[in-house]
Design goal:
The chain is built from 22 helices and 14 strands. It has 593 residues and is α/β, with parallel strands linked by helices. Its cofactor is Mg(2+); [2Fe-2S] cluster.
Length: 593
């Protein structure tokens, strides 16, 4: 049902576009008097509105207790006001969500990725069940954005995404510099290895310093401010035309974010009148633009997983694959000095023109497709014409002719550990290849314990393998952020990390995730042993246990036993049963791969 575009024709009797094509199933006659009674009770003012006004769902991923999401209900109220001004009926509702920063480092992290599915399930359910004619979604934290777009692709009714915006930087007097949430993780590594100190105040204890950093890293509402997963996804989605121009780089607390809420009401009306449905926007060219922005700005590897999920939910043909990311990464220069690998935050980029200015640059160079349709009803190029270019004196985005790295940072690796692929984020700072001795941990908790005990050896190249952390094995493919940031903070520079789990956009260093097939289904990462020699070669796109022959692998496989599921009841047990491979996006509603 969700995919039927026009249940009763898209025109009114007078030939005008029928904007209430879905809600009119309930409201046009007296077939559903109980439904109309309920709608009057909920706020439909009169018979004229009941019969004529389109009904727009306003889905915020709001909850208290997380800066990324705490303000989204208020943004939703602005949207509702604007929707009503445009002679439409707005229905606010919420989905669940969790904070990627708050859930990490404990069992809670397993719940993070599966909330992407819950968000998609919630929005699809409410939109279809309540007969909404359109949907405006307001996400904040990492999984929110792909969850919303997957919902759009499922119900395929006119839709717009308003990104909640990113947070402003904090400031630490102890460190004497701007800080953000990543500073907490890195300082934690220094805290463990007793290297956290204040050069201007030797009497300040490491506990006092870490507390001061924790108190000031997140100064108000907004998602993590670097080019981490939330900003990566918001940026990609704006480049695909599913949010209004500027949405992805406008900070959460900017007055411009409120103005965007007002503009979204006019835009959704355009989408409804012109039948601009999500699947018309989720085209190959749009995904190409998303990947270009991701590479140019150094986006999170989670973007690979989420874009695959969005494309496969929209049943894109030909399907988006890991090889598409490698192809785009090979040709797009990495030009952004943005955290985590660089110095600046999204708020800084906004101050010099934001993502519209970056897109203008890429468009002028022929790297973006400006002809794609967007939610404004205009092309991407037409939208960008209204924005100024980057100023010549800015220092965040490098000229294309003088990039940080001539190609993108995403490397898709394959080899005897990852025959179905793995994803590395390599900026080149760390070199292009790393060989080391395998140190294997089943589950991140075991690595955490080793880190806390200071038990990772220094002085030799080590490849830490963290496994049974994939979509099924985790379950939930938890991010290994704490471990990877702690490695950085502890200055364990001769250590690489490979995992069948994820790692956050906040991670940096020589790290490979999304190893497929995952250990829990018998992927060869389950067969790696302590002492194997592992080579990660980004130039050759390989990930191999180089001293383990095919014969050795076969012998080890015979000894391997599938582990018992970690979770047997509740939402994670359902998730583990349904979820597919990371190389196709870890979806729970497609079983045909
Ligand atoms: Fe929400 Fe980082 S924890 S975006």
């Amino acid at each position: 049902i969700a995919r039927v575009e026009t249940p009763q024709g898209s025109k009114n009797a007078d030939g005008s576009p029928m904007l209430n094509r879905w809600s009119s199933i309930l409201t046009k006659d007296h077939d559903f008097p109980g439904a109309q009674a309920m709608l009057y009770a909920a706020g439909v003012p009169d018979k004229r509105a009941m019969k004529n006004d389109p009904q727009v769902g306003i889905a915020s991923v709001w909850w208290e207790g997380n800066p990324c999401n705490m303000h989204l209900h208020d943004l939703g109220k602005e949207v509702k006001k604007a929707v009503e001004k445009e002679a439409m009926i707005g229905w606010q509702f919420n989905t669940v969500g969790v904070s990627d920063a708050i859930t990490m480092g404990n069992e809670g992290m397993r719940f993070s990725l599966q909330t992407r599915e819950l968000i998609a399930d919630s929005i699809e359910s409410v939109t279809c069940a309540q007969h909404h004619d359109a949907c405006i979604a307001i996400p904040g934290c990492d999984k929110n954005m792909p969850g919303c777009i997957m919902a759009f692709a499922r119900h395929n009714r006119p839709s717009i995404m308003i990104y909640g915006g990113s947070i402003m930087p904090g400031h630490s007097t102890s460190l004497g510099k701007p800080i953000n949430v990543t500073s907490c993780f890195e300082s934690h590594g220094a805290y463990i290895y007793d290297t956290l100190s204040n050069p201007n105040n030797p009497d300040q204890t490491k506990d006092q310093i870490l507390t001061e950093i924790e108190e000031h890293a997140c100064p108000g509402p907004g998602a993590c401010g670097g080019m981490f997963t939330a900003n990566t996804m918001a940026t990609a989605i704006e480049a695909m035309g599913l949010s209004l121009p500027g949405s992805s780089s406008t900070p959460a607390t900017s007055p411009a974010k409120m103005r965007e809420c007002a503009r979204a009401a006019q835009a959704i009306k355009v989408c409804m009148a012109q039948a601009i449905t999500p699947r018309r926007l989720l085209t190959r060219a749009a995904f190409e633009n998303a990947m270009v922005m991701m590479m140019a700005l150094g986006g999170s590897t989670n973007g690979v997983l989420h874009l695959l999920a969005m494309a496969n939910t929209a049943e894109l043909q030909p399907p988006l694959t890991l090889d598409d990311f490698q192809r785009v990464s090979n040709k797009i220069p990495f030009i952004a000095d943005l955290a985590p690998s660089g110095r600046h935050l999204m708020a800084d980029l906004h101050a010099v023109g934001g993502n519209p200015a970056v897109m203008k640059l890429l468009l002028a160079a022929g790297l973006l497709d400006g002809s794609i349709l967007t939610v404004t009803g205009k092309s991407l190029a037409d939208n960008l014409a209204a924005f100024p270019p980057l100023p010549p004196d800015q220092a965040i985005i490098r000229p294309l002719a003088n990039p940080i790295k001539p190609s993108g940072h995403i490397e898709v690796l394959r080899g005897n550990i990852a025959p179905a692929g793995a994803v590395a984020k390599i900026t080149g700072k760390e070199g292009m290849a790393f060989t080391g001795r395998a140190l294997v941990f089943d589950k991140e908790a075991a690595l955490d314990a080793a880190l806390n005990a200071g038990a990772i050896p220094r002085g030799e190249n080590i490849v830490i393998v963290v496994r049974y952390e994939g979509p099924k094995g985790g379950p939930g493919m938890p991010e290994q952020l704490k471990a990877s940031a702690a490695l950085m903070g502890a200055k364990l520079t001769n250590v690489a990390l490979i995992t069948d789990g994820r790692y956050s956009g906040a991670s940096h260093g020589f790290i490979v995730g999304h190893v497929c097939p995952e250990a829990a289904v018998g992927g060869p990462i389950a067969l790696v042993r302590d002492g194997d020699t592992i080579t990660i070669d980004a130039a050759a796109h390989t990930l191999d246990a180089v001293n383990v022959s095919e014969e050795d692998m076969r012998a080890r496989r015979k000894e391997w036993k599938a582990p018992r599921p970690v979770v047997t009841r509740g939402v994670l047990a359902k998730y583990a049963r349904l979820v597919g491979d990371a190389s196709t996006g870890a979806l729970t509603d497609r079983f045909d791969f």
